[in-house]
Amino acid sequence: MEKRVTFKGWLLPMCLLMPQIIITAVFFFYPAGQAIYQSLFIPDPFGLSMQWVGLGNFEYLLGDSYYRASFVTTAVFSILVTVTSMGFALYLAVLADRLIKGSGIYRTLLIWPYAVAPAVAGVLWLFMFNTRVGVVSWYLGLLGYDWNHVLNEAEAMGLVVVASSWGRVSYNFLFFLAGLQAIPKSVIEAAAIDGARFWTRFRTIVFPLLSPTTFFLLVVNIVYAFFETFGVIHTITSGGPQQATTILVYKVFSDGFVSQDLGSSAAQSVILLVIVGALTIVQFKFIERRVHY
Amino acid sequence: MARIPDEGMVEKRGIGHYFTHVGLIFGVLIIFFPIWLAFVASTVTQSDIIRPPMPLWPGDQFLTNYSKALTSGINAPVALMLMNSLIMAMGIALGKILISLLSAFAIVYFKFPGRRLFFWLIFLTLMLPVEVRIVPTYEVVAGFGMLNSYSGLIFPLIASATATFLFRQFFMTVPDELAEAARVDGARPMRFFWDILLPMSRTNIAALFVILFIYGWNQYLWPLLITTDPSMNTIVMGIKQMFPSGDDFADWPVIMATSILAMLPPVVVVVSMQRLFIRGLVDSEK
Q1: What's the number of domains chain A is made of?
Q2: Chain A touched by B172 (CB under 8 Å)
Q3: ipTM of the predicted structure?
Q4: What is the C-alpha R_g of chain A?
């Protein structure tokens, strides 16, 4: 797409572009280039010089059982967060869509957790399930269940999944509700006249018509779970116990800043870069298709 | 047919109607519960909390806990952290909007050599969140001596093209006749930008501001890395720093008061500007 009418000159547009070009070059391209460059070296033990290792860092990572475990952890975590937050949001959106009046009130009541930072959500859920003072863990104890996410890997994973999904329900609810309201009422009425009950209509008409929204949300939520949940993990579990909740982004942080293993951390950054790139391409392809509908 | 009321709605009346409300209220309660608990904890004493179960109804320590948090906090007064967060969020939102408006204007309304190249250079950045390049970005910021500074908090987070992309999309929908008329009238490009394009973009700017403000306010990893001085902590990352490292009990009433204060500004923005917020959300994901 091009504008038919444009202004002349090159000095003015260059000046207009400069702020963004400079900031992008300094804080984006240079660091991204450095990540790729550093991923090909390992620093000597004194940090005085860098030794060229080619793809050695990558080979090491792929053979490293901790890194492979972190991959699996990330996959499990992302799938659970996506399914939990989308499932709950769809349930609420379907109910809100059934209302003649008042869906606006529920929308107001349900969307604002979006504004709560993942790190703050982490602190709230940590407080509820705290092993010493948590209300929920205390009542669970009363029921005979000994909650301890500090030691139990599955409980730690469950807690970070729920805390990450909580605020995300708002976002998904908003898009699901908009998607549901865009489905022509006549289609649903026609099915109702043919005698299809609510569940049948949902399964055979509503859900298929909702699939563009669902697919879009799938991609967006996976990206969210990969990158934006760092705050939740860092506040609740710090990646533990025994790395059970160390997702890839957390590992870049802990290897780079805590263990100072720069080569490995840079190589991990490059791998993440490839993953984001792939997800972005999937997203763009999908949006292109939706535009052509 | 008797089951379908006159308005043409399907199964929205009768007993099912109440189940719908019950189901929704159940969902709202689940969503609200963590916040309610945090609020209650911010109004009771430490001893109410460390002897579980804590009360589920607010106590009378609201003023004590909040004033303790705001004026002294644990490592730094929370009032200071709130100000740091405000400066960072405003800096990110306004900075990003400003540079994106200018660059989108240049890309859409001018033809000059290298335009395509710049276009693609800027749009490549759509793909990389700061989390992926933290170590080298940290080194750059440290090299400039920007650790523990507002510019260090703000600039690296401005380096992304989402806003530019959005303004470009919007400018493309502006009728060509407007630029044509401006040119015929002999208006210089910047005059057209200020008098016509900018007023037309008002709603888009406001919607984007809401989204970017929340984005900036809620940053965690980046402030965690570059603000080692407690007086530069932002509130969202400062909460975690309030937990004791040893086996001591955390000061829960103060921590929970801080959590409530940390979520208040973005929540107020979302609720009071709901329409703009939804628009911004939909725009920025397209």
Answers
A1: 1
A2: yes
A3: 0.88
A4: 24
